[in-house]
Amino acid sequence: MLICFCLLNVVYEVVRVIFDENLIAIELNKSNIIFNKPIYVGMSILDISKTCVYDFHYNFMLKNFSLDRCKLLYTDTDSLIYELKSDNVYEELIKKHIFKFDTSDYQPNNQYYIPLENKKDSRSNER
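and the corresponding structure tokens:
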């Protein structure tokens, strides 16, 4: 019975069923649940991110590259990995549509002469 008394002192709602002198079933339920973390905000952010990623894939990539030249290999919450068939992807895609890409981390004098644009600009995909 010592175990039973220890469990009864915990701040839980308790449902007890006594089967025998030596056998008691105890069900513990939390008496109240506090939602002090904004889970719904995180879920909304992930949903919006997913919408932006899908929009980029279907309304930008597949409109600029045909299905036989653009193969989606992997997706994550905020990234896509493609296999692109192109003679020069920098000329065909990035320079032509610079407003869609964050090239701010490129070397200033890079070999493809791509300008440093859209530093961490979340709106770059909206344009």
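(Above: one complete record from the training split.) Residues 39-64 form the longest helix (26 residues).
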